Amino acid sequence: MHWLGIAMMLVGLYLALKVAGTVLKLLMWILVLVGAYLFAAPLLGLSLPF
Questions:
Q1: What is the spatial distance between Cα 34 and Cα 11, in angstroms, rounded to a whole number?
Q2: DSSP 45
């Protein structure tokens, strides 16, 4: 394998890990927001979606 191919593979792996980290952060925020809504909805008199 040529050195340029190895460099491109490493950059691609780095970008894939960055994208995976961003997706996991977004999922964590969604879980936090849903959990906060499920906790606060009865206290505020809002209806639950289920």
A1: 35
A2: T
**Cα(48)–Cα(6) distance, integer angstroms:** 52
CA–CA distance, 42 with 50 (Å, rounded to integer): 13
Q: Which two tokens stand for residue 8?
A: 């491109």
- 10-residue mean pLDDT series, the chain (50 residues): 93 98 98 94 84
| Chain segment 18-27, per-residue pLDDT in tens | 999 999 999 9
> Tokens for 31?
């879980």
pTM of the model: 0.70
Contact 29, 21 (CB under 8 A): no
Tokens of 34: 């849903």
